[in-house]
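The passage that follows is intended for readers who have already worked through the single-chain material. We present the inputs for a multi-component assembly, then the predicted structure in tokenized form, and finally a short commentary. You are encouraged to pause after the input and sketch how you expect the pieces to fit together before reading on.
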Amino acid sequence: MNVIFENFALYRDGFFKTLLICAYAMVGSLVLGTILAGFRVSPVPPLRWIGTSWVNVFRNCPLTVVLFFCAFGLPEVGINGAYFWFSITALVLYTAAFVCEAVRSGINSVPAGQAEAARAVGLTFGQSLTTIILPQAIRTVVPPLGSVIIAMIKNSAIVGAFGVGGELFAVSDTLTGSRGEAALPVLTGIVIAYLLITLPAGAFLGWLERKVAIAR
Amino acid sequence: MSASVLYDVPGPRAKRRVMLFSVLALVGLLAGLYVVYRQLDKQNQFDADKWSPLFDPTDDSFELVWARIGEGMANTLMAAALAVVFSLVIGTLLAVTRVTSAPWYRWIVVGFIELLRGIPVVIAIFFVARVLPEFGVSLEPMWYLVIGLTLYNSVVIAEIVRAGINSLPKGQREAAESLGLTRGQVLRLVLLPQAFRAMLPALISQLVVILKDTSLGFIISYEETVRVAGQIVQNLSNPIQTYLLIAVIFIVVNYALSRFAIYVERRLSQGKKAAKTDEGAAVVHADDLAGAGATNVG
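Having made your guess, compare it with the prediction:
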């Protein structure tokens, strides 16, 4: 286990790099996914098409392929940047599809009678959306959305294999590969580092779920 | 879309407005596509030498390229199939023992499941590939991939099976027990057959996840589809075209599987209605399991 303490700085930096990647990707995918969900429930057919095709494309394509496409495809068309940003782009594009589905199913889970009642008492579209539909939808959306985000955190490990240096997976690769350290302690450390992120996140999600749960 | 919660069936004015926005959105979409097209064209991405090895049978490399892609796909399917079978067996065992056994054992299983669910599947695969050789277990890369995938997916499937068993009406178990069946018999003869039926859609969805995750084999040099694509790209330097093709292959296969899952789900719930059993329908929806299969994302 000494290897973990000897390389503690490496682990710590990797831990925070992973958190940083996740934070960017989370914000991006929540924003993009919500917009896409708006597209999917909108009355305008072309917008619905965009939303539906996005979901079908990215949900059925491995993240690895999306990452490769961003990392090697984008430079080909003259878009250059750091692998760091390419990988965040890929994570956002991919995760947004799942966020979209979670949000959409939340909106659809609100009983139609709620919106009909809102319209019947004369609320406008905006009013009924913000005061009736969304407050109820958000509660239903929390559990699946949380699972999507936790899965995204785990997926972020894949970007380490794409030359985004310094995050947790890359640390494990460096230590067991070029530095030739024994794999078991190194990887145990990496596993613990991931559990330090995912287990509290899962516990927080469970707490949040109970807090916003509604009897319907 | 008249069934939407958000708006009524549109009247004449709303229809005009929808029309207007549709036209605007279409124009925007076409403009976006044109920008992409122009950029691709400017960077010579439509040159024949980038496409013909993949799509033109008369090209010299065509046969070789497709032979490689075929090998890659065979390897992908092989790893996925093995991982599915192992995950199914181990997952069912985990779930069954969790439902029936003594508390201390149940806690071990729950701990195991929670632990493995918290680890990225890439790390699981990498762990297996790097640690097993240290203990003198050297295997083909495929087995590392299969073991890694199985570790991760068996706990997901265990949760699906457990949800399936729990979704059955309580009377099923009670009736079976009152007939004098042993616990094992209750599970084997009464609960599991119904549970499997109920969770078939969720299991098919998990198949999509496993198929997608085999692409992680590239980190341990397993020659699956995505790694083969990488080699093709190195030789032909056409990443956009090759990865596009690979993406389309994955999307077509997985989309078909997803549709099949939805179809099975619909069939099962129809059967339920026809049989007029109680409405707490025992179909485990793929979406309900987003928690268990958080991986749906991965």
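Commentary: The domain at 2-212 of chain A is CATH 1.10.3720.10 (MetI-like fold). DSSP finds nine helices and no strands in chain A. How closely did your sketch match?
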